[in-house]
Amino acid sequence: CPITARFTGAHPITYFDREVMQNDMTSTFLLSFLLVILTFVLAYRNPFSIVYAVVPLLLGELWTFGFAYFFIGKLNILTSVSGAIIVGLGIDFAIHIYSRFLDETVKQGDVLKALNTTMTETGASTIAGALTTAAAFAAMTVSSFRGLREFGIISSLGILCTLLAVFTVLPLMFLMHRNLFKPKRLAGFGLHLFHGLIDRHYKLVFVLFTFITVGLFLVATQLKFTTDMRHLRSKTNPAIRLQSQITAKLKASFRALSLILSAGNED
């Protein structure tokens, strides 16, 4: 019968892990971007609103990884997912500014006045929120673990770059498309039902959430810390599956054994 040769061990496993990480970096970024944009459109019920979310996010990502090239020069297993994280956090800035701008446009009827009110009032709170988030990521830069330190650098850079993009690009877009604003009532996402339930049964809700909190606290204390890298690797890695089959057949570890002997000479 024909013989099939396959590879396993440290080098093949690392090779396949690299392929998985590179593919996942792209897929997670695209998926996070699409989901964020879809939610944005559903909330504002205006397809043209995609532009106000896409442009600042793309510019923020571009600026972030441009600066990352100068500061770090490469990506690692941790920083490869920072693109998706920046999308999820950076969209908040656009939502705050865009929502307040639409409200002020309805109230004041003038785009320029609405923009001035938005940037001076909501803009200040948005900056405060962005700086606190960036500071939290920046705290990781003092870590002695290089991967975590670089993740902190890129993530904090991403927050600041996206904030800058929102505060420079969105006002320009608002002023250039003055006649395109057709403010609609934001989707409620069922919040009126939730708060109505709280108003009617606030005691029951309090007891229920107390039990849930206590239960989750007890479960959270059972979390364990592991240093086994096998838990981080993809289960579809063919080299790992082959290694598992071999160790199961041999009923022994697949690790090499080194013996160091002391003698007077090589003989």
Layout: helices, strands, pairs:
Blueprint (H helix, E strand, L loop, with lengths): L9 H35 L5 H22 L10 H27 L2 H28 L7 H31 L14 H10 L1 H19 L17 H13 L17
Helix pairs in contact: 1-3, 2-3, 2-5, 3-4, 3-5, 4-5, 6-7
Main beta-sheet strand count, sense and barrel state: none
pLDDT below 50 for ≥5 consecutive residues: which ranges? none
Compute the CA-based radius of gyration. 26 Å
Helix content: 55-70%
Q: Provide mean pLDDT, rounded.
A: 82
**Structural class label:** mainly alpha
Q: So how many helices? A: 8
**How many E strands?**
0
Shape: elongated
What would you say this structure looks like, in words?
The chain has helices spanning 10-44, 50-71, 82-108, 111-138, 146-176, 191-200, 202-220, 238-250. It contains eight helices and no strands. With 267 residues, the protein is mainly alpha-helical. The protein is elongated. The relative contact order is 0.13. The longest helix has 35 residues, at 10-44. α2 runs antiparallel to α5 and α6 (191-200) packs across α7. It is 69% helix and 0% strand. It starts with 9 loop residues before the first helix and ends in a 17-residue tail after the last helix.
List keywords for this structure.
single chain; mainly alpha; 69% helix; 267 residues; 8 helices
